[in-house]
Amino acid sequence: MSDLPGWCKLEFMIRVTDTIWLDEAHLKCDFIRAGGPGGQHVNKAATAVQLRYDVISSALPSYVKTRLRAIAGQKMTAEGEIVIVARASRSQEDNRHEALDRLIELIRQASIVPKARRKTRPSVSSKERRLKEKSKRAGVKKMRRKGGEE
Questions:
Q1: First and final CA of the chain: distance in angstroms?
Q2: In this predicted model, what pLDDT tens digit does every residue of 41-88 receive, in sequence order?
Q3: Minimal CA–CA distance to 23: which of 9, 38, 11, 39?
Q4: How many domains does the chain have?
Q5: Which of 80, 82, 94, 108 could tie 56 with a disulfide, CB 3.0–4.6 Å?
Q6: Which range marks the domain in which residue 146 is found?
């Protein structure tokens, strides 16, 4: 267990970026039964992880919360909780690590502020080039038509 990074141990605070840390108290892990093939083991063991993170009561900056709401999509409930389900592995520990990785990556994406788009206008020469290319292409198509030399 000592070779795992600090955030995998779920102790106190989890580092997302240099300025954003998650409080473990806002995370809730539920282990549920995973479907699919696996024989008797899959019917007995609850290895899939359902990780819930309460965004509303978290200490995340408001711009991150707003972007999270947009990025998370169906992963976010109406109450403001992000629900991530991981069931790829047959191990609870591996599934918990995968769910945490996905949550951290989601929050990292939300913390990146997109650049504002600057309006640009095409130059006069680029407009002329475009129109010249259009008329050239129209001439080629006209020649393909029946009686194109008219």
A1: 82
A2: 666 777 788 888 888 877 788 888 888 888 888 888 888 888 888 888
A3: 11
A4: 2
A5: 80
A6: 121-150
